[in-house]
Amino acid sequence: MSWNRTPLAALAVCVLLLTGTMGCDSNATPDQGQNAASPAPVGKVVDDTDDEGRHYREVGEGEAPEVGIEVQPDVDGDDGSWDVRLSVRRFRFSPADAGERAVAGRGLAYLYVDDRLVTKLRTPEYRLPAGLVPRGTHQVTVRLYADDGTVWAVEDGPVQSTADITASEPDPEPAPTPSSEPKSTLTPPPSPAALSAPGTRLRTGGRCSPDRAGKA
Q1: Model pTM score
Q2: Signal peptide: which range, if any (predicted)?
Q3: Is residue 149 in a domain?
């Protein structure tokens, strides 16, 4: 029966050697999948919030994203809409399927008219409907957010930009143009008494006031 013990002893030695090697190897790496799913936090989430209660995520001036906004009347249409164009720096727009976690220099833009949220943008261009900008002066603000809903911010406040625009009433409808065709109306001749009355004149022309209609 001694021939059976030798293989068993050799197998036990191999198992011990493998276990000891794995336990003593200082270069062995633990499971990194969990670490990869939990990246280092970006910036610092502070107590300050926007009007909807979303917390600010402060980052340093040198790494903070920047945004600018330009709003112009839509020259290609007659519906009174406005063209909104954003310019960004150290920032890229996230796709719709991006995960809900903060990644440095990434996220989306919230567009406000007079502090009222209009839309969330994942592109730098947007057409603002005329119905959202009634007659008068308004403030159009764009603010940058991370994908987890926090507000990109620096020590001085949120990363945003505001443009003032003034919407006027549309031009009045032009008056109908009189027909150029001659009218077939007959004017009765004046009576002989009217022609012979002293100081009587037939007035055939005169001046009219210029049209002062225009934009409000």
Answers
A1: 0.62
A2: 1-24
A3: yes
